[in-house]
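Re: Re: ligand-bound prediction request (bumping)

Still looking for help on this. To restate: I need the protein modeled with 3-methyl-2-oxobutanoic acid bound, output as structure tokens. Inputs repeated here so nobody has to scroll up.
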Amino acid sequence: MNDSRSILIFDTTLRDGEQSPGASMNLREKLEVAQALIDLRVDVIEAGFPIASPGDFEAVREIATVMRGARICGLARCSDQDIDRAWEAVKHAEQPRIHVFLATSAIHREFKLRMTREEIIERAVQGVRRAVSYCDDIEFSPEDAARTEQDFLCQVVEAAIDAGAKTINIPDTVGYAVPEQMAATISMLLNRVPNIDRAILSVHCHNDLGLAVANSLAAVAAGAGQVECTINGIGERAGNCALEEVVMALRTRADVYGCTTGIDTRRLVPTSRLVSAITGLQVQRNKAIVGRNAFAHEAGIHQDGVLKERTTYEIMRPEDVGLPKNDLVLGKHSGRAALADRARQLGFRLSGEQLRQVFEEFKKLADKKKEIYDGDLTALIEQQLHGGEQEEWQLAGYQIETGSDGTPEVELTLIHGDERMTERLQGGDGPIDLAFNVVERLTGLTLQCRDYQVRSATFGRDAQGEASIEIEHDGKLYRGFGVSTDTVEASLKAIVSAVNRIAAEQRRQTRQEKTATEG
Ligand code: KIV
Ligand code: ZN
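Reply:
Sorry for the wait, this slipped through. Here it is.
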């Protein structure tokens, strides 16, 4: 007899995850991530915070309208306006959910909300009731629950369930809890809240002390039935509980937890790669489950052991998390079908147009490089996913002179619409700094470089360089990504791709202003 409990996986990559600095995604990217989450078989997708901005609203509404196969959730504070907007956004979903939250800890009550305990309970009840008037799947979160007095937490939770909440989520908003405390809080609520059997208890842990996964597992062991998490653990500050880690811990140690999830674990690595490609947030090499080194055995003694009997040093099978068995080599003579097939195995679903463009880049690369590895292909696809639908600016050519004794000189040619524009400058603090100055001249934008990284996509001296860049413009962060066997060209492409994101945002704002004036 199988008496294991089934744990619901609530993914908040598109909401809390998107709150990672520099990780904001456009509509097309959010839809791609949402589709990947459906393929991964998460139970709930928190698609965004609809009141936060028109872009957020539009994304949640589109995901709710188009995606099938998971509950689609929108976040709202406990205010009529927020809740109404959240409902407007999720109402076309197959299974809509509204997630209302209100802070309950003494610190938040006193300094942020300036509300008494009674007022908090009243507001929470009002919020849940309004949400229930729209749909029956309501989740309530007492924000900063992990620092809330136990008696008061019990009162709020009881009132929220009475008002109609079907899921009660316990957030460790600031990542302050430790596993023993998280387990004790869940047990305490299960023991003390009289109507707790009418709701599912959920847990939402932040990673400030590196304990988000451990805290979530402790909560599950104590009786929580839902875990909130993000792909690659992205999110505010140090991030959220990493979906891939919590899911594989539950699966690998089913002997301890006695729980299952509905996740198709073979989609974990592909989904991780997609989210990393889209957000520009690289996964550290030694990251559990999805890091490049997660299954790489370096020590001879380990390699020998694994060859004799895999389980000597491996607790999970790479194929169970979706790591391709071998690093397939493609070359000059590989056709579009082989490329499409490998892209699929690596977890990327490419549209016809995306495939056409990646194939074009692949052919150019095959002229320069004999063997094309998974890393090369992933880099080309990442570049494609980074580029927007409309590339307002294109890099047409460059000349760079630099050396230990001379002053750098950079000449760039960009294409803007039908116009070909060239500018040459001398000086600067090295060629990349100077390239920034030239791009500023050509585009008329002011650009602050906040982060700049170049790394090789695979091994060998002919490997492609991947450049990722974070640029601040008008107080907002924009990411850029470029790939080339020439690292300077990769860097220039990254700058231009960030500029294209700025241009897209400017177009979006202009559209919005136009609609506002017309409406
Ligand atoms: O961390 C937090 O408290 C949240 C809530 C909105 C659930 O993200
Ligand atoms: Zn959070």
